[in-house]
Amino acid sequence: MMLIGKYFFRTIFLLLVSNAANAQLNLAASKALLQRTVPNHAKQFVIEPLQQQNSKDVFEIETRNNKIVLRGNDGVAVASALYFYLNEYCHAQITWNGSNVHLPKILPAVKAKIHKATPYEYRYYLNYCTFNYSMSWWDWPRWEKEIDWMALHGINMPLAITGEEYTWYLVYKEMGFSDDDLKGFFCGPSYFSWFWMGNLDGWGGPLPLTWMKSHFELQKKILQRQRALGMKPVLPAFTGHVPAAFKQKFPNAKLKATNWTNGFADTYILDSEDPMFAAIGKKFLQKQTALLGTNHLYSADTFNENEPPSNEPEFLSKLSARVYDGMHQADTAAVWVMQGWLFYSDRKFWAAKQTEALLQSVPNDKMILLDLATEIEPVWKRTDAFYGKPWIWNMLHNFGGNTNMFGRMETIATEPAKALHDAKSGNLKGIGLTMEGIEQNPVLYELMMHNTWRDEAIDVNEWLPKYIFNRYGVENKNALNAWNVLRKTVYTVPADKYKRDGSESIIQARPTFDSSSRWANTKLNYNAKDLLPAWDEMIKAVPACKNSEGFQYDLVDVTRQVLVNYASPLQRQFVKAYREKDAAAFARYSKLFIELIEDVDKLLATRKDFMLGPWIASARKWGGNEKEKALYEFNAKDLITLWGDENCPLNEYACRQWSGLLSDFYKPRWEQFFIKATAALQTGQELNKDEFAKGIKAWEWQWVNTRKDYPVTTMGITTAVVTKMYAKYRTPIETQ
275-292 and 164-174 helices cross at what angle (nearest 10)? Predict the structure, then answer.
């Protein structure tokens, strides 16, 4: 009887533990992800629940009865277990830019049980800007793919703002605003990020109601899938930004006009002291919760690149208290997730007293700070770890979705763990990715998220060869040699060559005799010729690695970087010729410059990752009629070129090195410049820079507004085109 009782209670205990774990693990969602990820091998896996440990996620992997058992406390933990197994046992890899999921028919056994617990409660993902620089035109299949990527890489706290405009539309309609009142408020689809942060109104609009409704439905799918996998999405909250029509509708409201100073009209912020501020904040969250549910995490950035009207600590303290109160009134469990960009971008205003005042009036357990660009500048070190608030160590890395090989490899391999064990790091609760644009430099994102399930620094000497093997599917000495060069050049930022972010090419600058422009900054964090050995080794690796999608992407990327760097010495040559009045030399070097642009365009046309056509086609696809299609095409083209109107100072901020953009935008711009400069040489006059700038801005604006299709399928064989470029350019670049 005693024996029976003993086993009875043990069985009950195990059932209780299993049920508790099952309450967090959606088996159906995990099995569906498994099927999408490894469809031909899904039957060789078993998924089981596992109890969470001290609010931290955990997973296990073992072999049982010739099957791979994946255990986790939720879908993200199970997906992480799957990805760990694929990386470590199958030498597989899944990235935006080339994946290797070629698995053996019978999966390798796990000899001893693997148990992993993350030291990070939160693994945050996305930046407001990512939703436009990369995600503007995504449909559900693309979102589904990304959510799987998030889960596989351990993300459990994604920003989720798709379709926010429809909720606001409903709120304002209930407040008595007409469609006419809102026509100049909602911006076009490419500009939501800055609209929600209060930087602009209406640009790229008017926004069709069909867009709002379709993206509200898309948001429901996104949230359902994220939650099914155990993620806790961060939803938007009210920051005070209201329509210009607000002042007519509510003449007694306390409004402040503010200007982003980037060529856009004033926007209007409702003063947090006005009773309507809390009322609207509450109304919005109640409506959003009724429509979409909530995980009690809310994003609100009150001063994105806009200064508050006063730097008095008492004013700032009361302001943040009122913003939080608007959330709390609607949801007593509300937690404010604040992007810490303001402390980085405007450090002159946000001194210690101002920063502490803004943060201290919200309870510590009701706010989470995102140290948004920790790898560039760890703000936590100069704010006493955000004065006790929970905070997240983030890699920002990419600005504007620009195309360049760049990063701080050693920093992201070592600094998260250092911070974790630093007695001064306060309430560090997580790590995250806050890039403005994705689908580039996959090595950095694989490396950064490798921190998720460990509390020690990553040894890049050990990690990098595994990364290359997983990516290319073969171990190759030349490929490893190439990556060791890349690690020491593009992926290192020495103190004497400090850069916030990657370099653009002079090709992308509005034509100039200067060596750089504001947003097409050509300064490199390495010597351009030092990259050549990486190119040499990648060429040698072609026979062994050519069948790998990841290798083909990397081969194009390295070749692209070498070639666009070469544009600068060519430019110096034609500038020298112009200043010396040498018309023959000017003609020779300007011709070589144009030829280089054409060749880079041909190179990039071999990979969809580097093509303009899919960006434009996916934008137009959302249109229900020709008017909507034209509006979305304008949005897509404007964002990556002018950014705003023809006089917008942000031109080229989001520039890309894409086939189609080089041949149809950058090349004809430079050709017009060379025609004008040649005419000036022939007449003995100086090129009128102001007159040229005025004319080229008008041409750019016309280009943005012109209807045109671009190729959506690749042209040429990657290895053949690269080999041809190598034969043509290797010696001239070496001997320049």
Answer: 120
- In angstroms, what CA-CA distances link 489 with 56, 388, 485, 562, 731? 37, 38, 6, 12, 20
- Residues facing residue 270 across a β-bridge: 255
The token pair that represents 514 in the structure block: 């200067």
* Unique residue bearing structure tokens 């046992």: 89
Picking from 197-201, 366-370, 433-437, which range would have the lowest pLDDT averaged per residue? 197-201
Helix, strand, coil share of the chain (percent; to 5): 50, 10, 40
| Residue 404 backbone phi and psi in degrees, to 5 | -160, 155
The alpha carbon of 412 is separated from its chain's Cα centroid by a whole number of angstroms, namely: 16
55 pLDDT tier (thresholds 50, 70, 90): confident
Which residue bears the tokens 């629940």? 49
Nearest Cα to Cα of residue 598 among 661, 553, 535, 656: 661
Angle between helices 75-90 and 140-152 (to 10 degrees): 70
Q: Six-digit token pair at 426?
A: 């306060």
Per cent of the chain over pLDDT 70 is 97
| Tens digit of each residue's pLDDT (9 = 90 or more) over 573-599 | 999 999 999 999 999 999 999 999 999
Where do we find the tokens 């025609």? Answer: 675
Render 569-610 in DSSP notation, one character per residue.
HHHHHHHHHHHTT-HHHHHHHHHHHHHHHHHHHHHHTT-GGG
Residue written as tokens 């490929």? Answer: 479
Does the bond joining 206 to the residue before it have cis omega, within 30 degrees of 0?
yes
On the question of pLDDT at 237 being above 70, the answer is yes
Beta bridge partners of 297: 335
- Please tell me the predicted confidence (pLDDT) of residue 516: 84
Closest CA to 370 of 159, 200, 194, 119: 159
Question: In angstroms, what CA-CA distances link 459 with 117, 337, 345, 414, 480?
Answer: 19, 32, 31, 8, 15
In contact, 525 and 406? CB cutoff 8 Å: yes
List the structure tokens of 82.
């799957």
**In the predicted model, is pLDDT for residue 19 greater than 70?**
no
Strand, helix or coil for residue 398: coil
pTM for this model (two decimals): 0.95
How confident is residue 518, by pLDDT bands cut at 50, 70 and 90?
Answer: confident
CA–CA dist 596, 592 (Å, integer): 6
Task: Give, rounded to a whole angstrom, the gap between the first and last alpha carbons of the chain.
Answer: 91
